[in-house]
Amino acid sequence: MQGAAIIGLLSMPAQADLVGPLTVENWPQINNQSQRYNWIRAKVRAISGSAVDKGEAAREMAFSYRLTSEVRPIRTMGDWGNLSGNKFAMDANRFRKLNFYEIKLTFQWPEYVFGGEERPGPNKKVFRTVVAGRLVNRSLFKPIEAATGRFQEDITSPFFFFEPNRYSVPRGVTGQ
Fold first, then answer.
1. Burial, 73: exposed, middle or buried (Cβ in 10 Å; 0-12, 13-18, 19+)?
2. What would the pLDDT profile of 8-55 be if each residue is shown by its tens digit?
3. CA–CA separation, 165 vs 20, rounded Å?
4. Among 14, 19, 35, 62, who pairs with 45 as Cys (CB 3.0-4.6 Å)?
5. Longest dimension (CA), the chain
6. b/e string for 28-52 if b means 16 or more Cβ within 10 A?
7. Are strands 40-45 and 117-132 parallel, antiparallel or unpaired?
8. How would you class 102 by CB atoms within 10 Å of its CB: exposed for 0-12, middle for 13-18, buried for 19 or more?
């Protein structure tokens, strides 16, 4: 699997509606009333030394942990109150939801196998940060755009990437 595919899947928003293994619908969401919630989890192994030394036996003995990624739009004042009388506040609320995200990475270790089921151990570390910028889904299966050097945008793709120097403007603000 490509590194871009791994990052793209780990960056999938928690509330994007995943309707198949490679299809997303209803994104971007301005409201967070979706009844679906994605748990994006990866089993990760520690790697050290030469790749030549990493045989099948080494994989079984390697230290492994569970990584859970949660990407959510920032909660805004509109989540707690009624802004229907204030157009400026409603537009600002939509802009924030489209361009500000909380990222939460949870690491749990060690990863054990009990009765054929993988479970994390009792240790846990959580990292949080906020990202400002556009979150866009791109297709990794189409040719790269020559003008930008980026993967093509595809609103049904499950591969999401942040673009920190670009921002989305809600339709209501631009008059569309």
1. buried
2. 989 988 877 667 666 776 566 545 555 667 778 898 887 666 654 566
3. 30
4. 62
5. 65
6. beeeeeeeeebebeeebeeeeeeee
7. unpaired
8. middle
